[in-house]
């Protein structure tokens, strides 16, 4: 996966007025705090760790640099979910596959790719064949593992 490209797509979503920078007011709309004051505080906190050169706004370069670092310990699956979460928070419509994946991952607490008690691979509903080519991309890893478990 091209992480800088994903991060830039996220940056453009957050940059609501499209002026090429993410400003405190735009960070405020991402804040999770329920109060206006909390949002303001959160936005400024976020700004301090994203704004590397101290000009009180976040350039695309700063954004990509900081998040590449922050996400360096994540595997591709975590990274993908992280970006998708952030996009939803930034106002993008959630995409259906991602929603399914999230639900599945929440159920799959031990990250085995297998949801205990359900016994199905969410992608194919149980009809797929382990180890065979799949059009699902990254999902296929989960898919294949689910079937390996079942057949073991
Ligand atoms: Ca902006
Ligand atoms: Ca800056």
TrEMBL record:
Keywords: Calcium
GO molecular function: calcium ion binding
Domain EF-hand: 2-37, 50-73
InterPro entries, per the entry: EF-hand-dom_pair, EF_Hand_1_Ca_BS, EF_hand_dom
Protein name per Swiss-Prot or TrEMBL: EF-hand domain-containing protein
